[in-house]
# Entry
Amino acid sequence: MFKTTNTLLKIRGEKMSNHRKRLKASDVFRESKYVFGKKVSFEEVFPEIEDIVVDVEELCWGTNKQNCKRTYTKRNFPGEYIDCSNPLCYNGGFSIGKILRDMVKNRQTELETLELCQGYEGSPKGNKYYKKCLNQFKIKVSIKYKKTAK
Ligand SMILES: [Zn+2]
# Structure
């Protein structure tokens, strides 16, 4: 009888450490941005998210009008960064991954915020700096979390 209980506890313990391992994977990801969206699926990075909608509205650039508003879900998620569509901008965009990690940490379901582009306008090869990119991203995030058995 006692033995059975012990075995059960053991199995539970293993399950729990498995769960910890998963959380660790997202810790690793925190340090190696390129992993997100390339080698690892959204599911693996954010196993606790059942569904997500990210609405992004940025300033419009010339003929790129259809890019002013974009909606991302799990299926078409761009990865760690959402890119800036300013054609003159280098290294433009912002880290949606960071925002999601903060939200998930707090189990936050809704967020509306304004992000500034981290890039700059420069010469075609990017070695001349003209000015900081003025693009802004108005974003709205809705997350539905999976029910976790605790
Ligand atoms: Zn930009």
Q: What stands out?
A: The first helix runs from residue 2 to 31. Residues 1-31 have pLDDT under 50 and may be disordered.
